């Protein structure tokens, strides 16, 4: 079975999505452990303006979320395009029997069957 370039692109997008998701989960666990260790309130700890010590990690977590959303939008667009192509193919396949039926009726009329 041969994989199209579009399918390979989708696989690459989803690999990056799951890699970003794993990185984000790890980062969230590290940040939450640091928050609990510091005894900080959630609102204070997770605000990069109030938590300079962890600001880079917090901003990284925001960027990972944005990247994941973008990657999922790309995958959804690919899925919509694939569904549209399948619908078109299905419509064309359903149209064929009608055309053949029409052809058979014309043949019957011409040849008196």
Give a description of the structure.
This protein is mostly helical and 113 residues long. The mean pLDDT is 86.
How would you describe this structure in keywords?
113 residues; 0% strand; single chain; 3 helices; rod-shaped
Q: Residue share in helices?
A: over 70%
Average pLDDT rating:
86
| Count of distinct structural domains | 1
The strand count comes to 0
Secondary-structure-derived class: mainly alpha
Principal-axes shape call: rod-shaped
Order of helices and strands: HHH
> What gyration radius follows from the Cα positions, in whole Å?
27 Å
Strand content: under 5%
State the helix count: 3
Major sheet summary line: none
Short structural summary:
It contains 3 helices and no strands.
Task: Provide the fold topology.
Blueprint: H1 5-38, H2 42-45, H3 55-111
Helix pairs in contact: 1-3
């Amino acid at each position: 079975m041969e994989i199209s370039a579009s399918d390979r692109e989708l696989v690459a997008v989803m690999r990056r999505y799951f890699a970003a998701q794993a990185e984000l989960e790890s980062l969230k666990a590290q940040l939450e452990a640091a928050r609990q260790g510091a005894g900080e309130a959630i609102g204070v700890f997770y605000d990069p303006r109030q938590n300079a010590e962890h600001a880079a990690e917090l901003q990284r977590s925001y960027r990972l979320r944005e990247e994941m959303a973008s990657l999922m939008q790309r995958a959804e667009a690919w899925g919509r395009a694939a569904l549209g192509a399948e619908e078109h193919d299905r419509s064309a396949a359903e149209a064929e029997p009608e055309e053949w039926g029409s052809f058979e009726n014309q043949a019957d009329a011409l040849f008196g069957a």
